[in-house]
Amino acid sequence: METRDIDVGQKKAAGFEIPLPSGPLVLARGENGFVMCGYLDIATADKLAAAAAVVRGVKNLDELLANPVTDVSAKALSMGIRPGMTGREALQKLA
Predict the structure, then answer these.
(1) What DSSP designation does 47 have?
(2) What is the second-level CATH architecture of the domain 2-94?
(3) Whole-prediction pTM value?
(4) What strands, in cross-sheet order, belong to the sheet with 25-30?
(5) Are 29 and 16 spatial neighbours (Cβ–Cβ below 8 Å)?
(6) 10, 16, 55, 72: which has the fewest Cβ within 10 Å?
(7) What's the per-residue H, E or C state across 69-94?
(8) What is the pLDDT averaged over residues 10-31?
């Protein structure tokens, strides 16, 4: 597993890349929520009232931050996170 700090404006977030047999699980966690790859389920995030955004088809943290958000939980939506913004833009709102 690889972990690293991610600068998000004045704050830091934590990034995780976990190698799995069929592809990596990639996640960036801020203080108020997280941006995740398509391995994780937005319906579960909604069920747990978590602020989460999904970026699909990524293999590492750099791609997670650069590519567009495809899905958001209800809580993330209420925080101003929208599909189409980059993973980094979403993480800035979640940090």
Answers:
(1) H
(2) 2-Layer Sandwich (3.30)
(3) 0.95
(4) 2-8, 11-18, 25-30, 33-36, 52-54, 71-72
(5) yes
(6) 10
(7) CCEECHHHHHCCCCCCCEHHHHHHHH
(8) 96
